[in-house]
Design a protein that fits this description.
By secondary structure, this protein is mainly alpha-helical. It has one domain. Helices cover 64% and strands 0% of the residues. The radius of gyration is 21 Å and the shape is elongated. Keywords: Endoplasmic reticulum, Hydrolase, Lipid metabolism, Membrane, Nucleus, Transmembrane, Transmembrane helix.
Length: 209
């Protein structure tokens, strides 16, 4: 008599699809590269002494507090409009990253050391990198709304890229977390532009200042 057919899940394991093989390979490469690049993941790592410096740049709390302070101190209507929209962009970034992290629930790399400055519940998850998202968003925002000389524009782009790379070097994120974060932050600026707050579209907000 013919043997009974294999369960569907066993068939999937014995005959994986090309897409499944490709995704598994990419995941393996991602994990391998992330671990190799995590040279600041701990004090005993190859570049462990640079760890305290890399932990600061790109954190959401200083950006929010600095933007809010500038908004309160500004005496120019044009500056207030730009700062209010930057504050809106930063808050939108925090909410969106938290939602995606909560949905994907990808654990942080095994070599990560959880010594972050300020954390919330979703910070135990890795995808996407909030620092990378914020860096790309702020970079694109400043490039469009600040008059900067070419060297400063180049430095701004380099800063955003360095923030992304530092997340992998610290062991906080995998490479794909950072790449998706940069893309998400770049796209998020377009949302901010389409919802731009002005004295005409949001008079109540501008009345506060």
């Amino acid at each position: 008599s013919a043997p009974p057919p294999l369960p569907e899940e066993d068939c999937m394991k014995l005959n994986p699809s090309f897409l499944g093989i490709a995704l598994s390979s990419l995941l393996a490469i991602d994990l391998w590269a992330s671990k190799r690049l995590g040279v600041c993941a701990g004090e005993g790592s190859a570049w462990g002494s640079a760890r305290p410096l890399m932990k600061v740049s790109g954190h959401g709390i200083p950006w929010l507090l600095g933007t809010f302070y500038g908004l309160c101190q500004s005496d120019s209507s044009a500056a207030r409009e730009v700062l209010l929209n930057l504050l809106f962009a930063l808050l939108l970034d925090l909410v969106l990253v938290a939602v995606v992290k909560g949905l994907v629930k990808r654990r942080r790399p095994t070599h990560n050391k959880m010594d972050m400055f300020v954390t919330i519940s979703v910070d135990k998850y890795s995808f996407p990198s909030g620092h990378a998202t914020r860096a790309a968003l702020v970079c694109r925002f400043f490039l469009h709304h600040l008059v900067l000389a070419v060297p400063l524009r180049v430095l701004l782009v380099l800063w955003a890229l360095v923030v992304g790379v530092s997340r992998v070097m610290l062991g906080r994120h995998n490479v794909t977390d950072v790449l998706f974060g940069l893309l998400l932050g770049y796209a998020l600026y377009s949302v901010v532009e389409s919802c731009w707050l002005s004295p005409l579209s949001a008079p109540a907000l501008f009345a506060l200042w």
